[in-house]
């Protein structure tokens, strides 16, 4: 019974965290469109800052409960490293997807736009796919590096990384398969056309795999120093 309650707490934490993340992404995107007066750079900045800030908060709040992955690529990375039981992976991913989609719906309800939408914003091309691979690679490497060196810094590092990656990647750094699926359901500033989502997701998992592959070599001495 205790194991079931612990598992339920983890699933709820991943779902709530993902819901808040997408509410922030979509809600700030809608607000940015309404207030930026057609200034794309200002709208992007208005979308960037709340996203980076909420990530810090969510990881600090839900990290002690579930690890605050909030991202199927991150959960798979930890499963590959044997730091998340494979038996929990499906539950984590399902919770993240359900939470993310619910977050989009909540943002739409708050801003009084149609709840169920299909995005029409095209995001495609080799540059976009490379950007998503780099975004996911950097995100996972940031998490793994902080976990090895000093886990208390992870929330701040992730929030700052995503804030920066919004601007230095051509795709504005989705870096998260659940976020990508959910954003395909919002025809707003932060949306992505469903036809473009699968390529983004493939690129995100590819970037994650590269990060997982090189992390043991890159952080080996750091991990050894901590154990010593």
Give an overview of the whole structure:
The chain has 228 residues and is mostly helical. It has a single domain (2-227), classed as Glycerol uptake facilitator protein (Up-down Bundle). Helix content is 75%, strand content 0%. It has 9 helices and no strands. The chain has helices spanning 2-35, 40-66, 72-80, 86-110, 126-149, 154-168, 177-183, 197-218, 220-227. The longest helix is centred in the first third of the chain and has 34 residues, at 2-35. It is globular, with a radius of gyration of 17 Å. The model has no long low-confidence stretch (mean pLDDT 95).
Summarize the structure.
By secondary structure, the chain is mostly helical. It is built from 9 helices and no strands. The chain has a single domain, classed as Glycerol uptake facilitator protein.
Number of strands: 0
Here the CATH topology equals: Glycerol uptake facilitator protein
Q: Which secondary-structure class do the elements indicate?
A: mainly alpha
Quaternary state of this entry equals single chain
Low-confidence stretches: none
Query: Nearest-angstrom radius of gyration?
Result: 17 Å
Judging by the overall fold, what is the CATH architecture?
Up-down Bundle
Overall average residue pLDDT: 95
| Terminal-residue CA separation | 38 Å
C-alpha geometry: globular
**Tally of DSSP helical segments:** 9
Series of secondary-structure elements, N-terminal to C-terminal: HHHHHHHHH
Q: Please write the CATH class name.
A: Mainly Alpha
Main sheet characteristics: none
Helix content: over 70%
Q: Tell me the name of the CATH homologous superfamily.
A: Glycerol uptake facilitator protein
Portion of residues in beta strands equals: under 5%
Q: Could you say how many structural domains there are in total? A: 1
């Amino acid at each position: 019974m205790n194991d079931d309650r612990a598992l339920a707490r983890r699933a709820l934490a991943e779902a709530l965290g993902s819901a808040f993340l997408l509410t922030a992404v979509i809600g700030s995107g809608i607000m940015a469109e309404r207030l930026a007066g057609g200034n794309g750079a200002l709208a992007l900045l208005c979308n960037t800052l709340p996203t980076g800030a909420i990530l810090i908060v969510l990881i600090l709040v839900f990290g002690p409960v579930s690890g605050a992955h909030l991202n199927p690529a991150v959960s798979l990375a930890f499963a590959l490293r044997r730091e998340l039981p494979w038996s929990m992976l499906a539950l984590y991913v399902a919770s993240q997807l359900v939470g993310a989609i619910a977050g989009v719906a909540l943002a739409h309800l708050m801003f009084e736009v149609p709840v169920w939408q299909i995005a029409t914003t095209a995001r495609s091309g080799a540059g976009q796919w490379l950007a998503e691979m780099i975004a996911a690679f950097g995100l996972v490497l940031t998490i793994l590096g902080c976990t090895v060196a000093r886990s208390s810094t992870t929330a701040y590092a992730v929030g700052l990384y995503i804030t920066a990656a919004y601007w230095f990647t051509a795709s504005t750094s989705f870096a998260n398969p659940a976020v990508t699926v959910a954003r395909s359901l919002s025809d707003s500033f932060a949306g992505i056309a469903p036809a473009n989502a699968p390529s983004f997701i493939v690129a995100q998992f590819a970037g994650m795999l590269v990060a997982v592959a090189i992390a043991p070599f890159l952080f080996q001495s750091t991990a050894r120093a901590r154990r010593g």
